[in-house]
Here is the input.
Amino acid sequence: MKITSNKKTVVVREYRLEVGTVQVFDNYMVASFDEGATITLERTYQIIGISEIHFRDKDFGYISLRKNSYAIDPTVYNYLRGLDNLKAFAIVSKKEIDMHNFNIEKMFYKKPMEFFIEFDNALDWVLKRIKPKKGRNSA
Here is the structure.
């Protein structure tokens, strides 16, 4: 699995949380959680807080790099679903269990969410979903 990108990108800020790392870019964020971590509602609030700092007034995407095995409380998706400016949620992994879990997670999230094996494909999909909207006067 390729978890890095060939594209030129600049990390705006990196956060080291108790359960992993969140990197913030211009219009998306990438999270990678530690082996054995549990993503609870409390920990999700940390990520939502990071998104509010960096993306308060603009659309953004979220990429979850599933290098490690960890647990996610599926109720967190009820809260993530409420982020109107979160336009794309991508999961990157080559593990079969992650592909299975994705189908379950997608039932809870109910917004644009896709599974990818390659990071660049996930990034391309996310960036297409958060393109700036054209103004009312543009053709």
Notes: The two ends are 41 Å apart (CA to CA). Residues 12 and 68 are 24 Å apart (CA to CA). The chain has four helices and eight strands.
